[in-house]
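WARN retry 2 of 3 for item q-0093 after timeout on previous attempt; input resubmitted unchanged.
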Amino acid sequence: MNQLSLHQLLAKDQLKKKKSTGLNELFELRLSTNITLIKNLFFSLYPETEYAGSFEKLVSLLPKLYQERPDELQKIDLVRLQQGNWYQSEQMLGMQLYVDHFNKDIKGLSEKLGYFENLGVNFLHLMPITKRPKEENDGGYAVNSYHEVDEKYGTKEDLLALTKKLRSKNIYLMLDFVVNHTSDEFEWAKKAMNGDLKYQDYYYTYPDRTLPDQFEQSLPEVFPETNPGNFTYNHEMQRWVMTVFNSYQWDLNYSNPEVFMEMLGNLMKLTNMGVDVVRFDALAFLWKKIGTDSQNLPEAHQLISLFRMCLQTIAPGVILLAEAITAPTQIIKYFGEGDMKGNECEVAYNATLMALLWNSIATKKTVLLNKSLLHLPTKPREATWINYIRCHDDIGLGFDDNDIYSIGWDAKEHKAFLLDYYCQKLDWSPAKGLMFMYNPKNGDGRITGSAASLLGLEKGLENKDKKLISQALIKIITMHSVILSYGGMPLIYAGDEIGTLNDYSYQSENGKRDDGRWVNRPKQDWQVIAQLENSHTPQSHIFHSLKKLINIRKNNPIFADHNNLILHQHHNPHLMIYERTSPEHNGFLVICNFDDHIHGIEKSWLEKIGFGEDKELKDLVTGKAIHLQSNHLEIGASEFYWILRN
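OK item q-0093 returned
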């Protein structure tokens, strides 16, 4: 039982005992339940001999932050405690989008909520909308404010109006909290540049290259093409400052407890505007230590858990998402380990599944996918994944090299093949993607491009190749069928639901032309959407196919995430097969064929896993009973089955 489960139990028990139990009383109960963990986490990072006073400051800060939380949101917190793990429900269906690319601004987005309801979306991730530098700003991830809305999107009042409207429609909202760094225009950075020693210590700043050079010996480069190295010299301050991502993004110094407490205050100001899920951006980088790569360090996990325990005490209805795009064995740790298992982030991106799906599309095989997923530790039962095929970012090839070698492939050659396949280096490949941040030193690179363009739709339409268009549509639906049925919360990237292609206009825009990720950040095409009901276009086919799958998901509780997934191993190297189980003995089987040819599964094998014909098998997509032909089940090229066993 993690702390959240304990709070749910205590709140339920307290409300049973006393009908008049107040919200303040429940806060005191949560504080007393969490305070020992908060103390232990705090002093694990900041030694008690030196920082006892800082801990006393934190203890006095928590009630103040609670009192600042609006009454309406405090009541919602209580409702969610009573609901349990609401984020694991089969009803959850997300969409990620840029507000200005979707429909102008916050008011424009508010006008389109009916579109989400029509598709079945009830969870929105809005890309950064807070104030940022006017020129280069990393798509808003260079932060000038954590809670003031940038004027291009509207006002703070517009955001508050939107969150109120979302609550009335039971739509959840996720916003980013850029926890690792600020922009060099942030108020703390400005004070540091003006010589304020207090704020110079809010960042990693040094008078000479002695310590930066020691860091550089083990620090990798995140953006080797545009921001080589990890430090930038600031002439105004006459000091070197750590800038792991871009020269205008200053890394925060969390070895200073004042930074943690200030950031906790900023976190609460963000959530108090009606945010339900907070995306902790770049959290793998939070703790820096000379002699390490300063990623995924134990102290980073302790710091995240400290944020979580404090947030849970103040606002238990708000949850954290780990944006940790790292090795499979590292991602799972962001749910918490050991004594803190289930007490770090409630949700994490399933980047491993995403990358493995793209690997299977290129190779037409599932050997690496099955091998890697089989080795991934089971997540805590209170946690869940966000499953996605595309997002605003690039596709990194974060596979475990040992898994690649174990199936007889050379890791370096295989990754080179994937880059060639998706980045237009192979004439026969249907994909039209771009290379991002290629590092010639080690051959590492990443892939950009919209899902439809990477799966062949752009090339098919350009060449008027009906066969290629048909194959692309099947692949788009099949890829989404996995994220809609795999254990966790599906997240669709806005535009993918209508097969939006690459947008090359960024190449002529200042501040964007050097960042190839903008190719997969297109504007929503409302003209296409207006014709979805009355056309037979590829876009219409994709939209209505996904809408049907979403509806099936929402009407079957077996899709709720209760760690009820079994990955089945079959000798056919082109198939991915997994089962979702339920206590009622119903079963749900997913079979995906990643090859361009038809494949079959033997009747005897299906019977062995409990899906013989005598079990009343039904294809959930067509609604028809399944009858095996010639003692085997045929799966079409790049197609899938959703099979329900009664």
